[in-house]
Amino acid sequence: MREAAVEVQDVVVRYGDVTAVDGVSLTVPRGAILALLGNNGAGKTSLLQVCEGFRGPDAGSVRVLGLDPVAGHDDLMPRLGIMLQSGGVYPWATAGEILRLFASFAANPLDTDMLLDRLGLRKFAKTTFRRLSGGEQQRLSLALALVGRPELVFLDEPTAGMDVGARQTTWELVETLRADGVSVLLTTHLLDEAESLADHVVIMDNGVVAATGTPAELTAAAGIDLLQIRADPALPLTDLAARLDAKVTEDNPGEYAVAGALDTEAIAAVLAWFATAGAQVTAVNTRRRTLEDVYLALTAGAAR
After folding, report:
1. Of 174, 150, 208, which is closest to residue 34 (Cα–Cα)?
2. Where do the structural domains in the chain lie, given as residue ranges?
3. pLDDT digits (tens, 9 = 90+) for 121-167
4. What pairs with residue 7 in β-bridges?
């Protein structure tokens, strides 16, 4: 069985007296997408720099495609695609020139015209990098990360500054990478992006891992936060509210909402109360918490 694409074990990164990454462990399986989430300053970019081999950890270990990313940097780089948030290109060169230059570094590059077409950059091929919009620069940076046919791609905020159409195109391209067996480690502030694309999610908060799992596991663990019931109108809700750690309202005649952290026992208690009240229940709906709900709950302290 092949080794994981990325294995991070108890990694620590310090800048003087500041600990940016404090004992983080994670694994990116081969052919999978892992989304690394966290507020600004959570340690995501520092961890990426260690995985990319641009700096060594102050403690812990990292293996990338089976290699030490620092000691094996020269052997590893041709196998990686790295999309930076900014920089790394010649601002006075055109988009087409930059892409062809990066393609010349690879042993078996992708067709540059295909990438220009796929990412909607054909009409900007003769535009200098400095004159591209932020979203266009992002699309070019993604093309540069992919042109060398990498086994593993690091994407740092890949859709920042993109419009809706370009973002959707990028999502489709990332999904194609996974289908082709390419491993992806991405950071993003877009929770719907992570929920849509990622096989695994790691949420960082103040340099540590606050939660990890698949999007489905994380949202399932968070539970139900809204129960909607349609029944006879004008029922006395004071007694029901007193039994629950939740808010109970009748938003419209006969349309009740119970909002709060609701487990199976709480939902059963609500339905039992309606039965005891002799109410005719005609509809029951639930809303499970989203990945955004989970993220906000875990990083609320950092946001404050």
Report:
1. 174
2. 6-219, 224-288
3. 999 999 999 999 988 999 999 999 999 999 999 998 899 888 899 89
4. 27, 63
pLDDT value at residue 303: 46
Fold of 6-219: Rossmann fold (3.40.50)
pLDDT tens string 67-118: 999 999 999 999 999 997 766 788 999 999 999 999 999 999 999 999 999 9
Question: Which residue in 201, 244, 229, 206 sits closest to 287, CA to CA?
Answer: 229
Report which of 31, 68, 38 is spatially closest to residue 50, judged by C-alpha positions: 68
Structural fold of domain 224-288: Alpha-Beta Plaits (3.30.70)
CA 289/CA 42 separation, integer angstroms: 23
Which residue type, as a one-letter code, is found at position 21? Answer: V
SS3 assignment, position 35: strand
Q: Which amino acid, one-letter code, is at 287?
A: R
DSSP E strands, the chain? 6-15, 18-28, 33-37, 59-64, 80-83, 152-156, 183-187, 200-205, 208-213, 224-230, 247-252, 255-262, 283-288
What's residue 304's pLDDT?
A: 41
